[in-house]
Design goal:
By secondary structure, the protein is α/β, with parallel strands linked by helices. The protein has one domain: Alpha-Beta Complex (Spore Coat Polysaccharide Biosynthesis Protein SpsA, Chain A). It has 7 helices and 10 strands. The strands form 3 sheets. Strands 4-1-5-9-6-10 form a 6-stranded mixed sheet, sandwiched between helices. Strands 2-3 form a two-stranded antiparallel ribbon. Strands 7-8 form a two-stranded antiparallel sheet. The longest helix is centred in the C-terminal third of the chain and has 16 residues. It is globular, with a radius of gyration of 19 Å. The relative contact order is 0.16. The C terminus is likely disordered.
Length: 242
């Protein structure tokens, strides 16, 4: 059985009630549930939460909440792998056989069903422990700078002071949308960012991490542009969104 697990605890601090906050007219978790439904891969779509209101919203949009997440796995420090391991173990104890599981974040309104399908195919073809969504940085990270206490600046990699940006390697970061993994990898709580993983590269204009109020506002603006003024040329869209 393939299962989607959407972690959605109730104690978000920087954006209160973030996982069910209205985003363009509906709770933001609904977008993740709908993408999981649309991809056609999952026998079950589970929301792992400690919060009764989140559970009610999840069920309203078609997800299951067959258990409540314990408090010790609902704090500010518990990682994704621990939450996934708990969900899979609980499903197994309830009699399910889980072959592969995908963690889908609750705040991923740009997630598309085709990305979930493509990443699953990659996971199976390459027999990796994990395949997850990533995107490229818009500027070479090797030219990054940081401020000092006296308001001067320094380069993180001063050896690249005179390097041309086109000569530097492209770098990628976690897109914060989903993580496919084998059951054994999740239960072993293997690290996701490791050589046993691969990435599915997403276009930058479909990626926005949502951790702060500023992130939320930017995501709303991006979503508005994509849904109300579709542009066929991806490079034009990217220019509009920065």
């Amino acid at each position: 059985m393939r299962v989607a697990v959407i972690p959605a605890r109730g104690g978000s601090k920087r954006i209160p009630r973030k996982n069910i906050k209205l985003f363009h007219g509906k709770p933001i978790i609904a977008y993740s549930i709908e993408a999981a439904q649309a991809c056609g891969l999952f026998e079950r779509i589970i929301v792992s939460t400690d919060d009764d209101e989140i559970a009610e919203v999840a069920r309203r949009f078609g997800a299951e909440v067959p258990f409540m997440r314990p408090k010790e796995l609902s704090d500010d420090y518990t990682g994704t792998t621990a939450v996934m391991a708990h969900a899979i173990r609980t499903l197994q104890e309830q009699g399910d056989t889980v072959d592969a599981a995908c963690c889908i974040y609750a705040t991923a309104p740009f997630l598309e069903a085709e990305f979930l399908r493509a990443a699953y195919a990659k996971l199976m073809d390459q027999t990796r422990a994990f395949t997850f969504s990533a995107t490229s940085y818009s500027f070479p990270i090797f030219r990054a700078i940081h401020p000092a206490q006296d308001d001067s600046i320094a380069m993180f990699w001063p050896e690249h002071l005179t390097s041309r940006s086109q000569d530097l390697p492209e770098a990628y970061h976690d897109a914060g949308q989903f993580y496919w993994g084998s059951t054994d990898a999740w239960l072993s709580e293997l690290p996701i960012f490791a050589p046993h993983s691969s990435i599915l590269v997403l276009p930058r204009h479909l990626v926005q991490d949502i951790d702060t109020p500023e992130d939320w506002k930017r995501a709303e603006l991006m979503f508005h542009v994509l849904k109300t003024a579709p542009i066929n040329d991806i490079s034009q869209t990217s220019d509009l969104l920065g």
